[in-house]
Amino acid sequence: QVQLVESGGGVVQAGGSLRLSCTASKLISRPYARGWFRQAPGKEREFVAAVTWSSENTFYTDSVKGRFTISRDNAKSTVYLQMNSLKPEDTGVYYCAIGFQSRTPLMISAAYEYWGQGTPVTVSS
Asked: Contact, 116 vs 25, CB < 8 A?
């Protein structure tokens, strides 16, 4: 069983930046994708960003393109989400995930087997 621990969330003013981290509890011997999702109050969880095993491909939801950057360090079993130019609509709980499936699009939550507990991000206007 793999546990994921997110950190880096907090309260920031609009236009500010935060860097989220998510570390797996143990090294995983086979390739896996990493993803970030978020859930705003009263809304469903939505896809934010994903990166493939060797970082050859990254994916972003349209609303964060140009502002967020996902990256990973496989030696540290860690994925990062650099969030710049934050907006109030970025507020929510951010979840990281690990997925082993190669055929399910990474923008879909079903592509992921392991999830973190979430870290809250609040962007004030």
From this structure: no
Q: What is the pLDDT of residues 99-110, one digit of tens each?
A: 997 788 999 999
Of the chain, the end-to-end C-alpha distance in Å amounts to 40
DSSP one-letter string for the chain: ---EEEE--EEEETT--EEEEEEESS--SS--EEEEEEE-TTS--EEEEEE-TTSS-EEE-GGGTTTEEEEEEGGGTEEEEEE-S--GGG-EEEEEEEE--SSS-TTSGGG-SEE---EEEEEE-
> 26 pLDDT exceeds 90?
no
Sign of dihedral through CA atoms 21, 27, 118, 92? positive
A 10 A CB-CB count for 110 gives 9
Amino acid in the structure at residue 63: S
Residue among 10, 59, 12, 18 at smallest CA distance from 37: 59
